[in-house]
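Fold sample X.
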Amino acid sequence: MAPRSLRAAVQPRDGGARDTDEGQDREQEQSGGDDLAHERILTVGPPRVEHVTRRLVVKVTCGAEDAERLSQALTVAATAVASGVDVSLWLTGDATWLGVPGRVPDLGLDHATPLADLVASVLAGGRTTVCTQCAARRGIMTETLADGVRIAGAATFLDEVLGDDVQALVY
C-alpha cells in the first residue's frame, strides 16, 4: 500500500511568486483595510497541492511493566499502518518479547485495543526490528522470531531515523 500524505505543501496555481505587491500587504494590515476582490479570490479555485510523504519509526523501550506506554506506542504504530503510513517498529528492552510468537502479554487496559491485535496489525503492514543487544541478553534468536521480524543494531536504527522525510517517536 502506498504511504498516505501526512502534510501538503501548497503552491500557487500559476507557479508564480506569492506576493507580487512588494510589501503593500503590510501597509494594508497596519491601516486596517484591504482592496482585495474577495469574490474573485473565492472563484479562482483551490491551489495545486503537492503531496509530501513521511515514514514513521516507532521505538518501544518498555514492556508490560509500563503497560500504558507500551499500549500507546503500539496504538500509534498500528494506527499509522492502518492509515497507509510506511511504519518501522523497533523493539528494545522488554519490548523485544513482542517479536516472539506467543509472548505478547494481555495488558488488561480498559479502553485499549488488545496488545496482540495491535502487534498483529504492525507485523502485517509494517516492518518490525528487534534490537541486537536486547535479543542477545534475552536469548532471542532469529529463528524464534515471528515471520518478517529481523534483528538489527544501532547503525541500522540510525540509518532509518536519519533518512529524509522520517519522523521518529520513542516510547
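Fold sample Y, listed below.
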Amino acid sequence: MFALVTLMTLVNQVSGTPYIPGGNTSAGTDCSGLASWVANAAVGRDPYSGRFHTGNEESALLARGFKYGTAPNALVIGWNRGHTAVTLPDGTPVSSGEGGRGVKVGGGGAYQKQFTHHMYLPAELAAPGPAPAGDPTIVTIGNTDAPPPPDPFAPPPPPNPFAPPPVEPVVAELPPPPNPFAPPSVAELPPPPLGQPVIVEPAIAELPPPPADAPAPAAI
C-alpha cells in the first residue's frame, strides 16, 4: 500500500498556498490540481507530472488504476462538474478553494453530498512508500547463500598428526567347519534299542609276517 506519510508530506508542503486556477506548481493550485498531485503521488508518479480537471477526471483516474465507488482505508476522490476533493486513507480530508481558502488539510473531503462521482485507489495498485519510523526492519548480514556442494575430485585433506590412532575391531576366531567325510565318533553312534543285547566282537591281534629267510612250510 502507498505510504500515507508520503501523501501527508506532499499536502503539508503545499498547505497554505493560495488558490490558483490551473496552477501546477508548489506555489499554489486549484481543487483539481490538488487532486491530481495526490493521485499522481499515490501511484508513484511525480506529483507535478500531469494534472487533470473535473471534465476529464474520470478518464484520468481510470488511467491511474482507480476504481469506481469508495472503499474503507483507501484513497478516495469525489467530484462534480465544478469541484473535487480528496479523502486520504486515514480519513483526513484535503482540499483547495473551500471556504475561500487555498490548499489546506481539512474541508468536506471526498464524501460531500454535492459530489456525483466517486473513485478510489485499490491498495494492490498503489505505489509502496518508505517504512514509517519505528517499524521493524529485517537486515541481512553476511552471505546467506547456501554453501556449494563438495567437489568430488578434490584431494582428501591431510591427516591430523595429533589425531589418536584408529582402533582396529577385535574379530573372534571361529572354529573350523566340520569335515563332512570324517567317520562319526563313538559318542556320535546311536545307542542300541532297549532290550537288544550288545554284541562285542573280540579284537583279533594281527601276527607279524615271517622273516624273509625262514623256510617255507612243507606241503602236506
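Sample Y note: The chain has a mean pLDDT of 80.
Also: Helices lie at 4-14, 31-42, 57-63.
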